[in-house]
């Protein structure tokens, strides 16, 4: 019983990471129908930004840990969203302007991800970075279930982000514009909606969430390396698709589902089976429901 | 025996009943019409007959065989070919290839024949090409054999699409609004083409059309549907004078 | 005469290659670059079948390569080499010359069967969702390999060198370059014949209008199955050759990064251009070798070049055209489109 609750907590924590990253995929896809393959690496860059910001605040300015955390959250989100927006401006927008086939944009995204990874490797070297500890980790033990304030913080943040984003997308004007673009990107500019601004906003939302995930991840697993974004990114992407890409609820459900599957696998099988079984489960879900759990199949009219 | 028999066919999209308890039979050798205003379910009927949708209830019988559970290409192999409202040619392949590919159901050779270039392959490929050229010749499209459809005028594209459907060697040819988007001289050409095909090919033609003059000119028998139900059928004369058709389909304007 | 021109040229080229390799006129390094070129040609042309001609976005090609590599390696070592897991050689090593091509083909067949993992979902799914399935398939293959200890797990598997040596001992010839050459030509030849037949043209028909294809008599499910299985099967052949050239395989060689490399070659050459894929595989191999001194920065430069390519010539080197569209004189030697 305790181990079950324990596993659920772990699943929620991993699910939170996946969900936060999956959001970035799903938002961009929802608006541009572009798989932003660089997003996993944006998450990685986010973790590094968090590292540099925190180290700077901690050692150069000598702030206390909690103060660093309060400042690091907005700063990391800000700088990471700069990375995302730069990608959009430099790599994707020119292609969109030319009306290029969306495959070319996908390839560009893949390549941008490789550049982020290897530029990092070239500049910072292969040595891993240890993330400083910002808050004192407190371990609670209630009836045999062990959890930390950090773990609760991660889960709580993900839940808050979900509520916030759901509000933005369904209730605000800009959110409605985002959804409108996904339906008909030709009609939207004709209605006087500034399409480029909406797209930039989408990238800001998506990459700042990746930055947030990077910070939280670095705090939970304080070892950074350039390839950390690749695998988590791919998995988060798959989570987004399983949930039904383009749908925020889908990103969260997919993320938590993936987290749960992985934790359950590790609880029963050797941990090397984790990826194998997780990917197989996802493959089966997609084979049965090709558009994901929340995805709506668009019927072709003839 | 009827070539096509639709027996109490119903089709639902979610809650919407697009076709309801429809009974239609098409007699061989004729040109028949299917009319009805926009959204009446005409194209849905064609999609059901060509196997693209499976009817929720009821049966479709082509030449004595129930098409229930068949895939579209299997229905095509039974002898049902069609054209589309908005032309769906393979735009980046030559007209000749368009005609050849729609003989896929009677290629008669396998992957290994294709790779090994066996005798059977060489024989069948040259037959297929010869048949394609013969068809293009008959429809005087042979000049366009090596053109890409995307470079052809709209009227010619329509004609190529009809040629592609004929290369299936169909018993039943479904034409979905063949006159849509054509100018008046093209419409005359089309009328002559359909007549000529009906006279020279062993094929029954069933067409959806909005141009009443085309329908009245070509069809010997017309079915009019509204909200997925038959409201009238008969000769052009009968349809023209049917009060239900006039009120549902033509409104107050007479033709 | 025209019919045999190409065959004669190829036979002469093979003879020259074998001679140069045998007399060690071209060094070991140059020879290995040439062999990787051949493998890349197989990989890019076979992926072009799915991504270019059929218009899908498969990004797990390396997974099928891994299947071919492992199946043929294990089989070869089992039959012809002493191994601490698989015991003594089952067959006389002198037979290896005759059995080796079979081993490579079996690797290909195994990979083709693994291709079903992607082919069957493709009946219902297209585009992005299918892309995910290919990624998942790639990861699944890698994880399976990592979890089988008998074949070395994550550490990798070796022993293929002794099979290659056994071939050389029986008849003293540079066997690996010869086999790579033959299989490369064979792959391109199979793909070319397939896509120029009316049967194979069903594949681009699916790309250009799948609904029309299905309704106009093309059995789209069957075509997808053939295209995916042929594509992954040839990737398996490439993987098998790759394993025997290196004499060592580990799962790390077949990750998404490798798949991305193959993708790059396809789009560099141009979707739906066979000669483009051949050309880009050759150029890409040379480019990677030329940039080798840059070490890790290579993987910044290459993607950057590609981003530039996508901006300024997104259709790739050839677009969807073939060589004779640019050099009409080539038609005198060979009928490219028949």
Give a verbal description of the structure.
Chain A has 302 residues and is mainly alpha-helical. Chain A has one domain: ABC transporter involved in vitamin B12 uptake, BtuC, CATH 1.10.3470. Helix content of chain A is 75%, strand content 4%. The longest helix of chain A has 33 residues. The termini of chain A are far apart. The mean pLDDT of chain A is 87. Chain B is of the alpha/beta class and 255 residues long. Chain B folds into two domains: 166 residues, P-loop containing nucleotide triphosphate hydrolases (Rossmann fold, 3-Layer(aba) Sandwich), CATH 3.40.50; 73 residues, no CATH class. In chain B, α3 runs parallel beside α6. Chain C is 69% helix and 1% strand. Chain C has 15 helices and two strands. Chain C has a two-stranded antiparallel ribbon with strand order 1-2. Classes of the chains: A mainly alpha (302), B alpha/beta (255), C mainly alpha (338). Chains A and C meet through α3, α4, α9 and α11 of A and α6, α12 and α14 of C.
Element-level helix/strand string of chain A? HHHHEEEHHHHEHHH
Helix content of chain A: over 70%
Strand content of chain A: under 5%
- Classification by helices and strands of chain A: mainly alpha
Layout of strands and helices, then pairs:
The complex is a heterotrimer of chains A (302), B (255) and C (338).
Chain A: H1 2-32, H2 39-60, H3 65-97, H4 102-124, E1 129-130, E2 139-142, E3 145-148, H5 149-171, H6 173-183, H7 187-190, H8 195-220, E4 223-224, H9 228-243, H10 248-268, H11 274-288
Antiparallel strand pairs in A: 1-4, 2-3
Chain B: E1 4-13, E2 16-26, E3 31-35, H1 42-49, E4 57-62, E5 65-66, H2 72-77, E6 80-82, H3 95-101, H4 111-116, H5 119-138, H6 154-166, E7 172-176, H7 184-200, E8 204-208, H8 212-218, E9 221-226, E10 229-234, H9 236-241, H10 243-250
Helix pairs in contact in B: 3-6
Chain C: H1 2-22, H2 28-53, H3 61-80, H4 96-114, H5 116-119, H6 127-147, E1 157-158, H7 160-170, H8 175-196, H9 202-208, H10 210-215, H11 220-246, E2 248-249, H12 256-269, H13 274-290, H14 298-312, H15 323-326
Antiparallel strand pairs in C: 1-2
Helix pairs in contact in C: 1-8, 2-8, 2-11, 2-12, 2-13, 3-4, 3-6, 3-7, 3-11, 4-11, 7-11, 8-11, 12-13
């Amino acid at each position: 019983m305790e181990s079950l609750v324990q596993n659920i907590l772990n699943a929620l924590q991993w699910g939170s990471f996946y969900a936060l990253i999956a959001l970035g995929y799903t938002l961009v896809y929802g608006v541009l129908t572009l798989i932003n393959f660089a997003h996993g690496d944006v998450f990685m860059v986010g973790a590094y930004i968090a590292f540099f910001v925190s180290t700077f605040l901690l050692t150069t300015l000598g702030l206390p840990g909690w103060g660093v955390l309060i400042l690091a959250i907005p700063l990391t989100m800000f700088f990471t969203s700069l990375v995302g927006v730069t990608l959009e401006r430099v790599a994707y927008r020119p292609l969109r302007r030319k009306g290029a086939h969306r495959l070319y944009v996908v390839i560009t995204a893949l390549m941008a991800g490789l550049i982020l990874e290897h530029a990092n490797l070239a500049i910072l070297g292969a040595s891993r970075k240890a993330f400083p500890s910002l808050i004192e980790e407190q371990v609670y033990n209630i009836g045999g279930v062990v959890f930390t304030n950090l773990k609760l913080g991660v889960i709580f943040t993900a839940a808050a982000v979900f509520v916030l984003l759901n509000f933005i997308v369904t209730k605000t004007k800009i959110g409605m514009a985002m959804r409108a673009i996904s339906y008909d990107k030709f009609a939207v500019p004709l209605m006087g909606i500034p399409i480029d601004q909406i797209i930039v906003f989408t990238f800001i939302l998506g990459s700042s969430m990746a930055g947030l995930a990077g910070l939280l991840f670095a705090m939970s697993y304080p070892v950074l390396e350039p390839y950390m974004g690749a695998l988590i990114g791919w998995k988060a992407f798959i989570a987004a698709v399983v949930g039904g890409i383009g749908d925020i609820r889908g990103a969260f459900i997919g993320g938590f589902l993936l987290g749960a599957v992985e934790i359950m696998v590790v609880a029963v099988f050797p941990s090397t089976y984790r990826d194998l079984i997780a990917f197989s489960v996802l493959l089966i879900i997609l084979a049965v429901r090709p558009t994901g759990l929340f995805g709506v199949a668009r019927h072709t009219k003839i | 025996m009827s070539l096509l028999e639709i027996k109490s066919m119903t089709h639902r999209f979610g809650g919407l009943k697009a076709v309801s308890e429809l009974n239609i039979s098409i007699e061989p050798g004729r040109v028949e019409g299917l009319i009805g205003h926009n959204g009446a379910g005409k194209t849905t009927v064609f999609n059901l007959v060509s196997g693209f949708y499976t009817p929720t209830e009821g049966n479709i019988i082509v030449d004595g065989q129930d098409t229930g559970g068949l895939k579209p290409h299997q229905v095509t192999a039974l002898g049902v070919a069609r054209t589309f409202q908005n032309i769906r040619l393979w735009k980046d392949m030559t007209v000749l290839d368009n005609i050849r590919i729609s003989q896929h159901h009677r290629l008669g050779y396998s992957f290994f024949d294709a790779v090994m270039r066996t005798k059977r392959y060489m024989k069948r490929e040259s037959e297929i090409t010869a048949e394609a050229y013969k068809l293009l010749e008959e429809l005087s499209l042979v000049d366009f054999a090596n053109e890409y459809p995307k470079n052809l005028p709209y009227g010619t594209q329509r004609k190529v699409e009809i040629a592609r459907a004929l290369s299936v060697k169909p018993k039943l040819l479904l034409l979905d609004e063949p006159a849509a988007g054509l100018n008046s001289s093209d419409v005359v050409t089309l009328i002559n083409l359909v007549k000529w095909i009906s006279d020279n090919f062993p094929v029954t033609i069933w067409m959806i059309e909005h141009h009443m003059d085309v329908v009245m000119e070509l069809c010997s028998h017309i079915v009019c549907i509204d909200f997925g139900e038959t409201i009238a059928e008969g000769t052009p004369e009968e349809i023209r004078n049917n009060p239900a058709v006039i009120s549902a389909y033509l409104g107050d304007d007479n033709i | 005469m025209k019919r045999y021109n190409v065959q004669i040229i190829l036979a002469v080229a093979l003879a020259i290659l074998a001679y140069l390799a045998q007399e060690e006129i071209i060094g070991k390094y140059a020879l290995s670059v040439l062999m990787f070129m051949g493998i890349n040609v197989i990989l890019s042309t076979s992926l072009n079948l799915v991504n270019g001609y059929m218009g899908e976005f498969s990004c797990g090609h390396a997974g099928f390569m891994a299947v071919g590599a492992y199946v043929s390696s294990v089989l070869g070592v089992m039959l012809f080499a002493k191994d601490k897991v698989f015991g003594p050689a089952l067959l006389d090593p002198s037979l290896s010359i005759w059995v080796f091509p079979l081993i490579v083909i079996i690797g290909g067949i195994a990979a083709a069967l693994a291709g079903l993992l992607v082919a069957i979902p493709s009946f219902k799914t297209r585009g992005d969702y299918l892309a995910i399935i290919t990624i998942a398939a790639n990861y699944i293959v890698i994880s399976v390999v990592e979890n089988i200890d008998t074949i070395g797990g994550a550490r990798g598997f070796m022993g293929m060198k002794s099979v290659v040596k056994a071939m050389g001992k029986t008849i003293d010839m540079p066997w690996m370059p010869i086999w790579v050459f033959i299989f490369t030509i064979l792959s391109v030849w199979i793909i070319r014949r397939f896509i120029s037949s009316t049967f194979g043209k069903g594949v681009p028909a699916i790309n250009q209008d799948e609904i029309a294809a299905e309704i106009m008599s093309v059995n789209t499910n069957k075509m997808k199955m053939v295209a995916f299985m042929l594509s992954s099967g040839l990737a398996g052949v490439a993987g098998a050759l790759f394993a025997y050239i290196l004499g060592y395989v580990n799962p790390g060689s077949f990750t998404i990064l490798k798949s991305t490399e193959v993708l790059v070659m396809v789009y560099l050459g141009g979707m739906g251009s066979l000669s483009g894929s051949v050309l880009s595989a050759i150029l890409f191999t040379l480019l990677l070798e030329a940039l080798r001194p840059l070490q890790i920065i290579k993987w910044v430069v290459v993607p950057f070049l590609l981003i530039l390519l996508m901006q300024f010539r997104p259709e790739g080197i050839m677009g969807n055209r073939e060589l004779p569209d640019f050099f009409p004189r080539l038609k005198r030697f060979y009928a490219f489109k028949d």
